[in-house]
From TrEMBL:
This is Xylulose kinase. GO terms for molecular function: ATP binding; D-xylulokinase activity. Residues 1-241 form the Carbohydrate kinase FGGY N-terminal domain. It holds the Pfam family FGGY_C. The active site is at D234. Belongs to the FGGY kinase family. It comes from Pelagimonas phthalicica. It comes from the Bacteria.
């Protein structure tokens, strides 16, 4: 049996699968995000351990006999977070999360440093790990001096599981300390970030063993020797879950954030496009992705304003015969691709006195689609081409939203049949490979239930709307300056 752990921003999901990769059961536990100041986003790493204990307890009670046969665990986690540990692995401060923007100035300085983009393969975004440590050095120097190790979120969970300081290339590729092409720490990047190699985790590939479950947990869980796979950053592991690791394969995710990801057989970065180029969770592969910070989160934001659930709001838009009059910029907490702008904020434009809630919902859905189209154009600027992509994430439950997105992107979207896929399954698959399974045999694509094609009759109208949307960023940016 194999266990996939997916450490998300709001909760942890544990998925138990058998030797064929078929799901047997799952459990979840949730925790909070703290926002002590504007732009800050933090969590207590101990909450992740508590959530894991809760999820494991649930699985043991529901699937005790199967759980006792556990032989491998894989871990996925939200990227870029900074867990700062002292001499005895004590937590020195709350983890600074991926969506924390306090270190925008430090990120800009690091990004402008000669050689940084070339070695890391990426723009240094404010959400990345290296500028967080520069912020700590400048604003919390007493804490900075005590830092013995810096771990990413899932790797703190690994420390609890194994007692070892280990990370993987796919997750560390978003730190701005890794030479992403060489798949190793860069002494130059570490020096620019005022860090040392001995403060870094040991590196493994996501599909390799990173250690063995420590004895105390073996006894508490009633299991034998369990291999802990390297695992990876959430999007790389989600790609493993949907079998996306070869050139030409890709997926779009309508989750809390939005992602358009393309697998790559070689390292071909183009930082100027604001496309992320990271190591994949399997050896010898990379991936590129455009990222928007608010996808379904934009609808969540509107639901709080209108005091209706996201599902209730989605139900207001049952059919669309073309773009609405109102436009929405989903930059509620800044944006990554293509703007690399932590200060930009969202906007509604073109509101009409006769428009109701449905018009606002449609504008939000379309704004997210246009932002993902920006990601597609950025990927194309690097030479990446996609002919069809998988569509995953909670937003795909809305048929209208999927049809909109297919039309705006001009790409057929393949919807997996109901079943298990994504980061938790990808983590379990990495555990299977770490214990001897072949990548090609394990990381297959899900059965497709339907392919949603772009609506040809609406393409021209949506193209015109997208061009209007593109003109709004510089106009609103100027108005906010």
């Amino acid at each position: 049996m194999y266990l996939g752990l997916d450490l998300g921003t709001s909760g942890l999901r544990a998925l138990l699968v058998d030797g064929t990769g078929a799901p047997l059961g799952s459990a979840e536990a949730h925790y909070d995000v703290s926002h002590p100041h504007p732009g800050w986003s933090e969590q207590d790493p101990k909450d992740w351990v508590s959530a894991c204990e809760t999820a494991i307890s649930q699985l043991k009670s529901q699937h005790g006999a199967a759980f006792a046969q556990l032989s491998g665990i894989g871990i996925s986690g939200h990227m870029h977070g900074a867990v700062l540990l002292g001499e005895a692995d004590e937590i020195l401060r709350p983890c600074i999360l991926w969506n924390d923007t306090r270190c925008a100035d430090e990120a800009a300085i690091l990004d402008a440093t000669p050689g940084v983009r070339e070695l890391s393969g990426n723009i240094v975004f404010p959400g990345f790990t290296a500028p967080k440590l520069l912020w700590v050095e400048a604003h919390e120097p007493d804490i900075f001096q005590q830092v013995k190790k810096v771990l990413l979120p899932k790797d703190y969970l690994r420390l609890w599981l194994t007692g070892a300081h280990v990370g993987d290339m796919s997750d560390m590729a978003g730190s701005s300390w890794l030479d992403v092409g060489a798949r190793d720490w860069s002494e130059t990047l570490l020096e620019h970030g005022h860090m040392r190699r001995d403060q870094m985790a040991d590196l493994v590939e996501g599909s390799e063993s990173s250690g063995i479950l420590r004895g105390a947990l073996q006894e508490a869980w009633g299991v034998g020797e369990v291999v802990i796979a390297g695992g990876g950053g959430d999007n790389a592991v989600a790609a493993c879950g949907v079998g996306c690791f070869k050139e030409g394969q890709g997926f779009v995710s309508l989750g809390t954030s939005g992602v358009l990801l393309a697998a790559k057989d070689s390292f071909a970065p183009d930082p100027a496009t604001a496309v992320h180029t990271f190591c994949h969770a399997v050896p010898g592969r990379w991936y590129q992705m455009g990222v928007i910070l608010a996808a379904t989160d934009a609808l969540n934001w509107l639901s709080k304003r209108l005091k209706a659930s996201p599902a209730e709001l989605s139900a207001l838009v049952t059919a669309v015969d073309g773009p609405g009059q109102a436009l929405f910029l989903p930059y509620l907490s800044g944006e990554r691709t293509p703007h690399n702008d932590s200060e930009m904020r969202g906007a509604f434009v073109g509101l009409d006195v006769g428009g109701g809630d449905a018009a606002l919902v449609q504008a939000v859905m379309e704004g997210v689609c246009f932002a993902l189209r920006d990601c597609l154009e950025a990927l194309r600027a690097t030479g990446t081409e996609l002919e069809q992509v998988l569509a995953i994430g909670g937003g795909t439950k809305s048929r209208v939203w999927v049809e909109m997105l297919a039309t705006v992107l001009g790409l057929p979207l393949a919807l997996p049949k109901d079943g298990e896929f994504g980061a938790a399954l990808g983590a379990a698959r990495l555990a299977m490979v770490a214990t001897g399974a072949e990548i090609e045999a394990v990381m297959t694509q899900p059965e497709i239930g339907e392919v949603v094609a772009p609506k040809a009759e609406l393409r021209e109208a949506y193209e015109a709307a997208y061009q209007r949307y593109r003109r709004l960023y510089p106009a609103i940016k100027g108005a906010l300056a």
